[in-house]
Amino acid sequence: MAEVVILSVVIKIGVALGKEAVKQASLQFQQFDTQLTELQGRMGRIRMELRLMHGFLCGVDIRNRRNQTYEIWVQELRMLAHEIEDIMDEYLYFVGHKHGTGWRTYLKKGCKQPNVLISLNKIASMVMEAETNLGHLFLVKSRWVSVVDGGNSSNSSDIVERSQHLASSSRSLGEEDLVGVDEDREQLETWLRGMHLDCSVVIVLHGMGGLGKTALAANVYMKEREKFDCHAWVFVSQTYSTKDVLKRLITELYKESEDTPGDITNLEIDGLQNILITFIADKKYLIILDDVWTPKAFDEFSRLIRNGKNSRLIITTREGDVAARGTPDRMLTLKDLPEDKAWDLFCKTTFASYADHECPKDLKPLSEEIVLRCKGLPLAIVSVGSLLRVREKTVEEWRRINDQLGWELINNPMLGDVRNVLHLSYIYLPTQLKSCFLYCSLFSEGYLFGRNMLARLWTAEGFIEERGASTFEQVAEGYMKELVQRNMLQLVQRNSFGRMKMFRMHDILRELAIDLCRNDLFGVTYDEDKCAGSLDKDGRRLVVQKLKKDIERSISSVHQLRSITVLDKSMPSLTLLHLLCEMSTYMTVLELSGLPIVNIPYAIGNLFNLRHLGLRRSKVKMLPKSVEKLSNLLTLDLSRSDIDELPGGIVKLKKLRHLFAQKVKYLNGRFLLSSSGVRIRSGLGNLTNLQTLQSLEAQDESVRKLRELRQLRSLRLFNVKGVYHEPLCESLVEMHFLSKLHVIASDENEVLLLNALPPNLQKLNLTGKLDIDSFQAVGRNLYSLRLNLSQLIEDPLPSISLLSNLTELFLDGAYNGEKLVFLAEWFPNLKTLQLRDLHNLKQLDIQEGAMVTLEKLSLVNLDSITEIPPGIKFLMTLRYLGFHEITQGFLTLLRECVRNGGMRQFWYTPRA
Ligand SMILES: *[C@@H]1O[C@H](CO)[C@@H](O)[C@H](O)[C@H]1NC(C)=O
Ligand SMILES: *[C@@H]1O[C@H](CO)[C@@H](O)[C@H](O)[C@H]1NC(C)=O
Ligand SMILES: *[C@@H]1O[C@H](CO)[C@@H](O)[C@H](O)[C@H]1NC(C)=O
Ligand SMILES: *[C@@H]1O[C@H](CO)[C@@H](O)[C@H](O)[C@H]1NC(C)=O
Ligand SMILES: *[C@@H]1O[C@H](CO)[C@@H](O)[C@H](O)[C@H]1NC(C)=O
Ligand SMILES: *[C@@H]1O[C@H](CO)[C@@H](O)[C@H](O)[C@H]1NC(C)=O
Ligand SMILES: *[C@@H]1O[C@H](CO)[C@@H](O)[C@H](O)[C@H]1NC(C)=O
């Protein structure tokens, strides 16, 4: 299964033969035109052969995949492909650098002052050798590897084509995808909600892998967690360490609180336990411990957190002896689906687009056989169903899949039923999706992927192909959709207007993928606790989950590394960056967010291949001038670091698409300048590929140059003064793609006068004083509006209510008046409403028929309100009602109301 590697090399050669590299090369090697032409010709031929190989590998029938001769041949091919990748990177480095001072790798021993011709000849001879070897492999194939004919074996273009068709005829995914668990879910929700229980309760979810325990728990967690004072979701897994689990619990629980736990990195178990117990002592919490394997772990954690008021602890486990520790009347045992339910689920998934999801008559016998093979496991059924959904609905096709499933079961008995089904689903993925899928498995179990972040990483890794006029980000989102539809990634959360937001990988799929990664040398996960992850000599990607020692001593060969992601935030990081800059010259992705890195070595400029540099939440104060040499950089992430100004050369990075740089000055500050953006002195207009600019400090020059950034999708602008309004608005109306905008005034008294806004805006944040006329410029497509510190004198609701597509509205310190009225028929799509810090507000009037879809209402720090708004009773769809930072008087009022039985369920926090 080397197709993933082969494809990435094909793409790499494509870059080396692309317009940009060809132009650079002909400048660089002006005098050696013939040699260059010959070299490029060879590279073209290698690419063609690799593409044919790729096509062949995709078409190989699954039954060959375990043949030893074939496997050895594929291994050789993969090694050669990696060699070619190295040569191509070296070539790209060479053509991209004027003086050819490179040659650290291949010429170290030889001449001290390489001249251009020698270098060119060296590359040429390596390419020639690679071509010869490739030709030899082709010959060997026909001699030794005879492939079992899979009949009308589907080739990859075929699969891709059908997937695209599938993506375009997308169906909506949602809660209903949890099939056959309705009763379990209701039961679980009842246990969570039961307000009559004053004590805390441990709930156990038990069942084998693939039954959907985690999916069920996650579904309920997302829905119910807001109703608790604090909440945490922590994966325990087979090889947990107590310390680690405690740390993650503390971090999660504190996430939405106003306090911080202080520095917990070096605390021992006792200290951690104390923090945890103190924090939850008087709180109502919801904690999920997912995938607990040992009774010891059960005892340890449930003892620790059993206190608390009316709290809930959910434990999921595959192990019977763990489940036995719970109380029987608070235990859900998930079972495999009975035949009829299994059949329903299969039909619903496979024939999603058919009337009544009915299975055609001729496919019925084979379908029944296939369902039988899934042993009633929802995960297996949904997987095979999702696979069949994109296949041709013919008896031949069905027979083939059924045969292959049977073959897998017999030949890979160690994989077990579910994994065999899943393996088949994997094999049928188009190659690009395979890369994306394998990549996700390198992250820790249960890792939550955000859509934008994942799109940026996939793009930087080179998995995303260009498709017509679509941007990489759009194509990536299409891939996510496909992976979700094929059940290879789970969709965990959508945003308020229905767009996919968070994903997670199923643990069984992840286990399978990790094996595949290892076989393919695609990447490894390094986890000290699991003693796994000696980085192979040829490893390309490394995700560090846990590492106590310095990385230098743990990883012998970093030279070939293309991508490193550090998830262990306590890893000693002093020499990491220096080491990588010196040794890993081909590095493409550096994701080091959360590490306390202060200095960026000058040598970072050597990483000519670098496409992603993630330093979010670091301590970086400034970047060295050499970053201007990172000409391939797509993403630079310095969000929430300590940076004020970027070096002037930053504007030379013409490919840059996402620039995050924001300094947080005061955590939890409720005032205007609790954060600031970065300054870019001049030349901002050259960054024409920018899609994200968060955050820029407005200055004369930068505001005028904004109009050049036509590709912007998301913009956050600090320090906006009156004199900038006119040039700013002129720029904004030109930004046709801009969908998210956040403007922050320069101080509390500066009035934001934006009389023109981008036409296709979806989310708008305005922080600073406003004029009531400001809303006239807002487009009607707006989904989300957040007004902060606007201090409006006049009631803004009549104007805002014209934005009938709004799904979220936040008014923080936005209005100084005494009365707000929500009239009938206003805000028909609103799901979330928050009113905060409206200090003069005495009366909140919600009329019947207003906000008919509202799900979440938060009233925070409204200290002049002296009655519970009676209109709340009209909000029929409300799922969450919160009164926060309330006065003693208001609390008394609430209690009274409860006593009279006139109050629905609500949540509150008293003022600190
Ligand atoms: C593997 O394939 C070779 C040639 O195609 C064949 O001779 C050999 O029997 C196969 N081995 C197994 C274990 O199937
Ligand atoms: C291949 O497809 C053709 C037409 O689609 C069909 O007639 C033939 O039987 C198929 N062969 C196999 C081995 O499935
Ligand atoms: C792959 O399938 C496509 C579409 O069915 C077809 O046009 C193409 O010729 C096939 N390629 C190979 C190598 O079989
Ligand atoms: C910006 O682009 C212009 C025109 O392409 C060029 O003349 C100028 O040197 C560039 N500035 C920088 C800092 O790269
Ligand atoms: C308003 O700004 C404060 C401080 O930056 C922030 O905590 C709060 O979330 C903002 N409110 C909204 C609605 O964005
Ligand atoms: C608007 O504010 C919210 C909450 O503070 C934040 O999450 C979001 O990123 C902001 N939007 C933009 C475009 O900055
Ligand atoms: C709401 O949004 C849709 C498209 O998303 C748009 O066609 C419609 O005009 C909007 N509604 C209003 C009242 O503007």
Automatic annotation (TrEMBL):
Q: Which residues form the Disease resistance R13L4/SHOC-2-like LRR domain?
A: 560-860
Any single biological process term in GO: innate immune response-activating signaling pathway
In this chain the NB-ARC domain maps to 186-352
GO MF terms, alphabetically ordered: ADP binding
- Give the matching SUPFAM superfamilies: L domain-like (SSF52058), P-loop containing nucleoside triphosphate hydrolases (SSF52540)
Does the record's keyword annotation contain Oxidoreductase?
no
Q: What is the lineage of its organism?
A: Eukaryota, Viridiplantae, Streptophyta, Embryophyta, Tracheophyta
The alphabetical list of record keywords is:
Coiled coil, Leucine-rich repeat, Nucleotide-binding, Plant defense, Repeat, Signal
Question: Which family, according to UniProt?
Answer: Belongs to the disease resistance NB-LRR family.
Q: Which Pfam families match?
A: LRR_14, NB-ARC, Rx_N, WHD_DRP
- Stretch forming the signal peptide: 1-18
Instruction: Write down what this protein is called.
Output: Uncharacterized protein
Note the superkingdom of the native organism.
Answer: Eukaryota
